[in-house]
Amino acid sequence: MKAAWTMVLGLAVVLALVLSVNAADKEETLKGTITCAKCDLKKQDTCATVIKVKDTVYYFDKDSAKKYHQEICKSPKDGTVTGTVSEKDGKKTVMVTKVEFAK
Is the sign of the CA dihedral 67, 44, 51, 91 positive or negative? Predict the structure, then answer.
């Protein structure tokens, strides 16, 4: 009986981990101001492409940051960013799949 309960508990833990990983991989659409963390927001010493949604700043992944930075560095633009959001060390990052600037 004890072995059965241990197995059920183990399966429940595995299921919970799988569900939390799948939830983290969900793509989101963020709408806000796409801008530079250095030049506009004064948040760091080097340029970085970000989208500011209300008071939350999401940093673009490395490849997307390079791709879109020239367009927004000195002139922020409103737009939407679609991608997978993650957080590490208190810093939110978005793995960008699509960027649309408002017209």
Answer: positive
Q: How far is CA 95 from CA 61, 65, 74, 89, in A?
A: 5, 10, 23, 16
Domain hosting residue 32, numbered range: 27-101
In-domain check, residue 47 = yes
Alpha-carbon distance of 49 to 69, in angstroms, equals: 6
How far apart, in whole angstroms, are the C-alpha atoms of residue 26 and residue 32?
Answer: 19
Record the pTM.
0.74
Q: Which amino acid is at 74?
A: K
Domain count, the chain: 1
Q: What is the mean pLDDT of each run of 10 residues along the chain (103 residues)?
A: 70 61 74 95 93 94 91 93 90 93 87
